[in-house]
Specification:
This protein is of the alpha/beta class. Helix content is about 35%, strand content about 10%. The chain contains twelve helices and twelve strands. The strands form three sheets. It has a six-stranded parallel sheet with strand order 2-1-3-4-5-11, with helices on both faces. It is elongated. The protein starts with a helix and ends in a 12-residue tail after the last helix. The structure holds beta-D-glucopyranose. Beta-D-glucopyranose binds next to loops.
Length: about 400
């Protein structure tokens, strides 16, 4: 099923890239209330993939089935709930997904459809490839249809306030999925991989990858961030900069273009063509003689666009980071081009979301392992975080051992 889903995902993402479908962005990103940084510790180098039931592999995990392990929920009510059911076991659950900007969203769609049905719920799973207003309308429709929980992967987490308020007013529970919902009181929980840690791992991988090629700096680098309307983009960037900035300050790293601020390095809509254009321009302006040693890329789609640009310019491929473990990037890593990616196994994120839903249905309190870091500008949203894993050619085989689609690529 996963193989099928991945193939579908590749097709869908490729189709989007070709048609250029997606919202032309009109927001400026708001920059409100950046998520404060959760405590960071190294992810174990091996074995601790976000794979099933890795409870205890990371202090922040609280992964599937680890209920009670973190003790951080602040809840005295046991998970699973002994009280009355909060809503019927066959209730409608709405899942509002963003645009298909990476394979993980397509995987999530398929998993939500099958796993919600398997858990006994009715599912209404929607993509909003048309943009923010389409997503607003989808959420409104879910409320009208009587959804008891609405799970939202927002295109723009700051633009759904009135729809989410209407959802709360109807008695529904609102869960922010992967991306935080900002500047609203109408969100109950947040479930995601630890995004700040994703950035930290990317920053560390960039340094490690460059040191392997050239033991001593200074290194010439360029920085890329994701789409400014996605609340995650700033968090990934902040995580990476927590590692890279001290090295920029001490001269080990040189951002040749001088473009170091989030707003200067964002990639609207997470679109490959925007990253490729920016990389083309940077190469022309700053790398006629200088050698580019490394590029911080926030995800795999943009990493491949950056590599395409460098190759088209006839330059050697620098160390480029990524995220999402997309099929084409895992192939690129195994071929020695892209340096790293991040494994945020979508199967586990959906699985934990469904566990949260069934717990809520029974009137219980979900397993929260970070009750205080995710201030959305209006409230602190209780979070259930999963641990991301850095993947390079060195640990790919081990990292994807239980992934039927990716594992064969690492042989
Ligand atoms: C997700 C990333 C993904 C990006 C673009 C982010 O919010 O966390 O996994 O690469 O969106 O789709």
């Amino acid at each position: 099923m996963r193989t099928f889903a991945k193939v579908l995902a590749v097709t869908a993402v490729a189709a989007i890239a070709v048609t250029g479908c997606g919202r032309s962005n009109t927001t400026t990103g708001g920059g409100a209330a950046p998520t404060s940084a959760p405590a960071v510790s190294d992810v174990p180098a091996s074995g601790a993939s976000g794979a099933s039931d890795t409870s205890g592999t990371s202090g922040a995990s609280g992964a599937s089935g680890a209920s009670g392990a973190s003790g951080a929920s602040g809840s005295s009510e046991p998970s699973g709930g002994s009280g009355a059911a909060a809503f019927p076991a066959d209730a409608l659950i709405g899942v509002a997904l963003p645009q298909k900007t990476s394979e993980n969203w397509v995987l999530a769609e398929n998993l939500f459809k099958t796993d919600l049905a398997a858990a006994g719920f009715k599912a209404d799973v929607q993509f909003a490839n048309g943009g923010v207003s389409e997503q607003q309308n989808q959420i409104t429709a879910m409320v009208t249809k009587g959804a008891k929980v609405i799970v939202v992967g927002a295109i723009d987490g700051s633009q759904l306030g009135s729809q989410l308020k209407a959802a709360k007013d109807s008695g529904a529970i609102v869960i922010a999925y992967d991306r935080l919902l900002k500047n609203t009181a109408a969100v109950d929980y947040y479930i995601a991989y630890d995004n700040f840690k994703v950035g930290v791992l990317q920053g560390k991988a960039l340094l490690e990858g460059m040191a392997k090629k050239k033991p001593k700096g200074p290194y010439n680098i360029e920085l890329f961030a994701g789409s400014p309307d996605d609340a995650n983009a700033q968090v990934f960037f902040d995580g990476a900069m927590s590692i890279l900035k001290p090295k920029i300050d001490d001269g080990t790293l040189k951002v040749t273009s001088g473009q170091k601020d989030f707003q200067q390095v964002v990639t609207q809509g997470w679109k490959a063509e925007n990253a490729q254009k920016r990389m083309d321009a940077l190469l022309t302006a700053h790398y006629t003689s200088a050698v580019l040693d490394g590029v911080l890329s926030p995800n795999d789609t943009l990493a491949r666009a950056i590599i395409t640009s460098v190759k088209a310019a006839g330059k050697p491929v620098p160390v480029v980071t990524g995220q999402d473990s997309e099929v084409e990037s895992v192939k690129s890593i195994m071929a020695g081009e892209q340096y790293s990616t991040i494994n945020k196994d979508t199967r586990n994120l959906v699985k934990d979301t469904i566990t949260m839903l069934t717990t809520l249905q029974k009137g219980g309190k979900p397993d929260i392992n970070d009750p205080k870091s995710y201030n959305n500008g209006v409230k602190v949203v209780p979070a259930h975080l999963l641990p991301p894993l850095i993947v390079t050619k060195e640990n790919a085989k081990e990292a994807y051992a239980n992934d039927p689609t990716l594992s064969p690529l690492t042989k």
